[in-house]
Amino acid sequence: MKLLIRHRTRCxxxxxxxxxxxxxxxxxxxxxxxxxxxxxxxxxxQVAVRRCLDFYRNRxxxxxxxxxxxxxxxxxRTRVTTNRANWLDPDATPTPxxxxxxxxxxxxxxxxxxxxxxxxxxxxxxxxxxxWRLAVDATAGQTDLWQAAQALNRFVHSHxxxxxxxxxxxxxxxxxxxARVGVCxxxxxxxxxxxxxxxxxxxxxxxxxxxxxxxxxxxxxEVFLPDIGWRSLDPTHARQPDERYVKIAVGRDHADVPPxxxxxxxxxxxxxxxxxxxxxxxxxx
Length: 285
Known about the structure:
C8orf32 fold; 7-stranded antiparallel β-sheet; 13 strands
């Protein structure tokens, strides 16, 4: 599937901002599931942009603006080709739950790629006995890790109500779970928290979803299966991500991978508008 993604963020400041430092995580990864064919970045005011990889090996663009400015516009245009390479048979039973102690031990010994980080509490996903109790109940009768993770995915989908603007970017998992409402970010946080409570490594994914009427960024989770690797689950839609999904970055939670992040001096208030469009490119071979 060939997709065209446009992402535009405009910030307006109540007073001229200066010494602005900014990070962007907008460029999709290239892996067995997707190929980023083209990525173009435009920033106003014009500024030199540098690139690096962060701790989780996400592509980061960063820049500084020393001169005073009353607005900042960041726009990206991306072409991506996707497939279903990461799809796993929903009925598969590749990993008995009896291997969870071994999995946790291997993570502590750093014998698996950064799984240890994805078993711990993080800024927006704390440890909570109540979450563990929910996870135990939701996976009752399951004997396989993949089947248990899918049961948790279905539980979160049915337990929370998708409600636009009911939460914000810094809402912790416990607040969304207590209110039983949220957006895709919150659904992903709750699923990840429940997985971690059972010692299933789980990480946060930021990206996009091509679907009619959903013109916004999206978020989902990945769980680690020994001998197989990371596999994706989307609790917002109670399914595995397919070729309509585009992965940008991963982290412990949303705080690790916001699309834009910045700090500046001289500003007490700002407004931010974000426009996203994701559409299929038809007529190409």
